[in-house]
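In keeping with the milestone schedule agreed at the kick-off meeting, the structural modelling team has produced records for the first pair of proteins. Each record is given below as a sequence line and a structure-token line. The laboratory manager (R.T.) confirmed that both were archived under the project's standard naming scheme.
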Amino acid sequence: MSHQDRNDPFRPARERSGVLESDFVGESVPMILRYVDIQEAACDPGTFSSNAPFRVPVPAEDAVRSVRQLPIETDPPEHTDYRAIVQPFFNRPRTPEMAAEMEPLIADAIDSVLDSGPTEMVYGFALPLQSRALALLLRMPRESAEEWIGWGRHVFHGDDLSSEQKGNVLHAYLERELDRAEASPGDDFFGALVQAEFRGRPLRRDEMIGFANLAFAGGRDTVINLVTFSLVHFAEYPEDFERLRAGDERLVRSAIEEFVRVASPLTFIGRVCPHGTNVQGVPVAPDHRVGLCWASANRDDAVFDAADEVRIDRKPNRHLGFGWGAHTCLGAFHARLVLRTLISQLCRRVRRFEIHGSTPVWEDWPAYRRHNGYKALHMSLHGR
């Protein structure tokens, strides 16, 4: 039996009307499903706005944080100026220097579980890898990642604490690190924030926390889910792993894009319609929300041949797994570097992947049910 449910729950509605209405904690949100419609909406902030604190994620996050996440919860041109402040950090994964630093980090992570018998790979591998890679990105000491690992798969939800408690833990941490950076600014992410300016003035503390909040929340469970998706795929389709072991760097890069397309770890994102609108015949009242469903767009048969299949050599692959338009994911370069390094190091070190059991994460809402990651994944990695 497959441990990776790749069923597309959005196909019937996408083919029927292009919209799926669902209730999210008492709020009815129509999700836009078709690739072209989502692209158009993502490039129309006047109609589909991100200038909505706490309301870009669905369900809303006003109960778990008190600041606007930046730059994602703004629209151009304000978004453009905010994004430029942190873009240099998120461009770092494109440099040879950071790529060279990522290799031993991921090699050590693989070696820690290699030939050690059944290992729980979410908390025992993917979460530590994600946290330590983030420390590298943000120029933070590696020991900082050990604290972040304790927050679990998501900084706001799940594990042993309530959402509100977890939000408070993150907020207190960010306040502490910004206090440290203000006392002695360095070249890490917090040092950059306390020295940054927005349109000629210093950033306010709430803006600094807004940037940092997104940096720690935005690429956490999504990267973890991409890592575990890759491991399970190699276990279930060893022929793909053998092709990658041949050492074709272009095929590795192609496989990464395909894994992002099929996994689509961020199912959808919210937009607020300030003046109201109509999406494929569904009226949206002023100040109500719609969802841009990336996971549906990435399975749209009008764009992707055999969209439910994983084809590691798929070309072209114009997926929307990192969003579209001005709000294309800030962390896309980082996620690609993590996956590229992971696959390359697995090819050097691993001979075979063996799954012993898994506990999937289900997004379970009235209108759809979707497998998106794992609470637990028990595997053995056998060395070459």
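The second protein of the pair:
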Amino acid sequence: MAQSLNPESGLARRHPSGSDVPGPNRVWYFARALLIGYAALTAYISLAPLAGVRHGPWSTPTLTVVGFAFALWHAWLYLGRGRTLVLLALTIGVSLAFESVGVVTGWIYGPYHYTDLLGPRFLGLVPYLIPVAWFMMIHPSQVIAERLLAGRRLEGWRRGLALSALAAVVMTSWDLLMDPMMVWMGAWVWEVPGAYFGVPAHNYAGWLVTTVVVYGAYRLVEGRIGSPPRATTSEASLAVWAFLITWSGNTLAALQFGLGGPALVGAFTAGLLGCLALLRTPLDP
């Protein structure tokens, strides 16, 4: 029989997968430590240029890997092992497939190609760092959607559809800020500049399609993997904070690059959605 969850104890608890893990305090302390490290690194990378300190090409990959580590650990605690592995596999598989087709054909996001700034590329097309970045934001975006829809009377396929659609909107709202910034940095190049600060509107339709496929496939199978572990609202909100930390760092970078337009749009989309989700996740007594 599974052991009961006692927040005051340091005893092991049992995941739905059947594996014992350290008590709630210890595992969630590590999640908080990862989040603090991610916030500190984001602050350094964002603010150091204001003090005349220049950082090398290591900054974006390192920050992405740390953000991914937090997202993976949080998902493992929040969703459980089985659900996390399914979401991770779907994110990597779908993002690599869609991005690769997109680079070759230009059908999904519009005609573009990656530069060498983000490191080695899968089949010479898509940097391996890209699916890592997708999962880094896929999980927090899903948590935000869950919080925003908390209390709504949605059951069955309606709930799955609403969560998938809203999570896709949350994820795409981040790209409204991120894409112009990364283009300015030279991470990828749009072969035909678009109307949205040089980015084709086609790109955002592609983001919605990609994320709906990931979230929709996940929602179709999640019920067959057992129930997720229990998490308090404050534990769940750590993922929301990770999303807002990413948004804050991207906003500071965009402002430094003179991209005030995308920064403003990001404030009223990604920033607003993240803050609204926090209001729906009050700290537990």
